[in-house]
Amino acid sequence: MTDQHLSKPDIRQANDCPPLPIGASMLDRMVYWLGLGLGSGLPRRAPGTWGTVGGLIVGVPLMSLGFVPFLILTILSCLVGVWICGRTSELMQVHDDPHIVWDEWAGMWITLLPLSYILSYVFPTSENTLSIMILPMFWGWLPTAFILFRVFDILKPPPIGWADKKVAGGLGVMLDDIIAGVMAAVIWLIIYIIVMMFMSF
């Protein structure tokens, strides 16, 4: 990868998605589309936001499996994502191209973990998790998780900004979004606890 490809494109501008190299193997084609979030990262403008929407759309039905399966899938998405994002960057010949959104998927899923836990364990019910997910409470807290993750991912307060600038390769692509997801999840949980305490009065 040459020096001109080491910097991340300006996400404030519309950017074309780097094409898959001609003659790429079937495995590379699969990795490339996973890196693009199954196409959710293709828009020329705000691909990170659209990719996060894609991650949210996929994450909601995964949450219906219950907290433990969703936690395992989230951890796997982070671990495998290091390779997916690293290989997709190599195929694009651009480090952390904004159209690579697998990291947004993983970060969004991390943000959803507290909600997944609450749905599975905090509200004892004979209904399954899928039934609970139609409640207004569930759909009211989803946008909060989405907004919090996007705020942290865009503003990149420390240590997110450090990870984004200082860590290279697939780990560098993933790490800032993992940290953003953790921070967003913590803030989400604090807001949830405050709201629930207020409503109990």
UniProtKB/TrEMBL annotation:
Q: Which UniProt keywords apply?
A: Cell inner membrane, Cell membrane, Hydrolase, Lipid degradation, Lipid metabolism, Magnesium, Membrane, Metal-binding, Phospholipid degradation, Phospholipid metabolism, Transmembrane, Transmembrane helix
Q: Which InterPro entries match?
A: PgpA (IPR026037), PgpA-like_sf (IPR036681), YutG/PgpA (IPR007686)
Membrane-topology descriptor: Multi-pass membrane protein
Give the EC number(s) under which this enzyme is classified: 3.1.3.27
Q: YutG/PgpA domain location, by residue?
A: 35-191
Catalytic reactions on record: a 1,2-diacyl-sn-glycero-3-phospho-(1'-sn-glycero-3'-phosphate) + H2O = a 1,2-diacyl-sn-glycero-3-phospho-(1'-sn-glycerol) + phosphate
Gene Ontology cellular-component terms for this entry are: plasma membrane
- Compartments it resides in: Cell inner membrane
**Which pathway does it take part in?**
Phospholipid metabolism; phosphatidylglycerol biosynthesis; phosphatidylglycerol from CDP-diacylglycerol: step 2/2
Class of this enzyme: hydrolase
The alphabetized list of GO BP terms reads: phosphatidylglycerol biosynthetic process; phospholipid catabolic process
GO molecular function per UniProt: metal ion binding; phosphatidylglycerophosphatase activity
Q: Which cofactor does it need?
A: Mg(2+)
Protein name per its UniProtKB record? Phosphatidylglycerophosphatase A
Record the organism.
Psychrobacter pacificensis
